[in-house]
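User: Can you help me understand a structure? I only have the sequence.
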Amino acid sequence: MSNLKIIIAPDPRLLEVSKPVKEVNNDIKNLLEDMLQIMYRSNGIGLAAPQVGVLKRLVVMDCSDKNTKKKPLKFVNPEILNLSSDKSEFEEGCLSLPTQYAKVERPSNIEVEYKDENGNKYRKSFSGIEATCLQHEIDHLNGKLFVDHISKLKKNRIIKKLEKIKKTKNY
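Assistant: Let's start by predicting it. Here is the structure, written out as tokens:
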């Protein structure tokens, strides 16, 4: 098992833009697998590499229902090609912003180009919670957090709470 840990906001590393992966090799495959295990252990549905301190364009996601078979997805260099004009609103949370939630409106459907853990290229459409989750994780790759999509007042309140949490829980 790796020694990766989820970074808790506020942290400057979460605001950096991640670098594209040049080659999908065993190190990348192992990192994706480690990220998936961390995500499952933390009861998340998505995790981006910057959240574990790795500034590479990597995302793992599994939006399957807790009672159904796991459907993990691994994305290398995901890029949004199209966003629908119709919007959906979901209450978003984030493993890097523990216990903090806010309603965020995003495009309902997206088309994404990416490589899988074997280097195969895909172009696929996602909708509903998967579209929201993937946009949330791709935001991480671009140094953005879900609180960047809400009012400044709400964002500042959440960041202040997180600063307190970090002091008291020794993150």
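Now, to help you interpret it: The chain has a mean pLDDT of 95. The chain has one domain: 12-169. Let me know which part you'd like to focus on.
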